[in-house]
Design goal:
- With about 300 residues, this protein is mainly α.
- Helices cover about 80% and strands about 0% of the residues.
- It has 17 helices and no strands.
- The longest helix has 22 residues, at about 275-295.
- The chain is elongated and about 105 Å long.
């Protein structure tokens, strides 16, 4: 009949690893002594329900603890409350709560990160970028957060900022994927030479990387460096599972470089692939007509 006896009995079972028995005692305590539940006891209620995978039943206790505890404990329960809203797909509650947290604790980076996470889940890229940018002013962004900020800038057509963040996380030995992203950023800024430099950096990390080689070919072609472009396209073609476009572009590049023989060979490869078949056949006809004209 003593509520404290029930409570400490439940704590003993929790400590012994018998969460179900602990929860059973806590439920009995709540039923028989509803007015005698102390605030610190509610932590055990919340923990027991969470351990027993009943997060919705834990929610009232977590909400109460997030409002009535103090100091570090309060912040911990606030984090748990927000996490529960997210894991239970309570979108409205999560958004309202994180906005309340930001209004009351605007210098806590965790809440800005939480707000960004909420917006990202709903594909709301602009407010997500705003939240992460503010978080970055309060505390340094992690490498993963910088990557997200860079991706968001590119998605929202702000390549200057996107490239800036990509370069910050690139380091000395740049990974091919990151090299591609930086190069594409510079391409959108119409800075072809800078894009090519980053492609070369990526190729230093992984020689003859098919995607980087294809991009290198595109950049060299744009710079009218056709002979080099043809070599890059041919190298890319040999490393790709679907090399149709690489062979087609190798044909055009060799044609522009004046190497008809290599051009014909590349187009004959390209004609084997459905997406490039029509263009390759047309190019072959034109080349054959050109050869006939020269012969006659």
């Amino acid at each position: 009949k003593n509520p404290e006896t029930l409570y400490y009995g439940a704590v003993c079972f929790m400590t012994a690893g018998n969460s179900q028995k602990a929860l059973s005692l806590l439920q009995r305590l709540l039923k028989e002594h509803p007015a005698g539940i102390k605030l610190e006891w509610k932590e055990s209620f919340a923990q027991a329900y969470l351990v027993c995978d009943q997060p919705r039943k834990a929610m009232p206790f977590v909400e109460d603890l997030s409002e009535k505890t103090q100091g570090k404990k309060r912040k911990q329960w606030q984090e748990i409350r927000l996490h529960l809203y997210l894991s239970l797909n309570m979108k409205k509650e999560a958004l309202e709560y994180v906005n309340w947290l930001i209004r009351n604790y605007p210098l806590e980076p965790k809440w800005w990160k939480g707000l960004a996470h909420l917006h990202l889940r709903e594909n709301r890229y602009r407010p997500a970028l705003t939240a992460l940018t503010i978080k970055g002013f309060i505390s340094p962004l992690t490498v993963q957060e910088k990557r997200i900020v860079a991706d968001l800038n590119m998605t929202l057509d702000i390549p200057v900022q996107g490239v800036k963040f990509y370069e910050k996380i690139a380091g000395e030995k740049i990974e091919p994927d990151l090299a591609c992203r930086i190069a594409h950023g510079y391409m959108r800024l119409q800075r072809t030479e800078d894009a090519l430099k980053w492609v070369e950096k990526g190729l230093q990390r992984k020689k003859n990387h098919p995607r980087l080689m294809l991009l290198k070919g595109d950049l060299l072609y744009e710079l009218n460096r056709y002979r080099e472009a043809a070599e890059a396209f041919e190298t890319a073609a040999r490393g790709r599972k679907k090399p149709g476009r690489a062979w087609l572009m190798a044909g055009y590049a060799s044609w522009n470089a004046g190497n008809v023989e290599k051009s014909l060979r590349a187009f004959k490869h390209a004609v084997k692939y459905p997406k490039q078949k029509k263009s390759a056949r047309k190019a072959l006809r034109q080349l054959n007509m050109q050869a006939d004209y020269i012969t006659n």
